[in-house]
Fold:
Amino acid sequence: MKRYLEQFALSLAQHLDKIYGKSFDELGIDVGLDSNRQIQLYEVNWRPGVPPSFYYEIDVARNLIRYAIYLAAQKRR
Structure:
């Protein structure tokens, strides 16, 4: 099964390289197996994982909340 999935992933990556005319450096390939042990493709992501901008958004939100708490404390005084 491991070899089967590896071959599928490599074949899919080569196929996508041909379609888009460039080589992708990493792909996130989400698959499942049906009751006949056939691969069912769910999605393919280029540069998988959490986008780096997500962490910046968390930092911005965290700082805004801290600032709102600070302003609320100042208004109570």
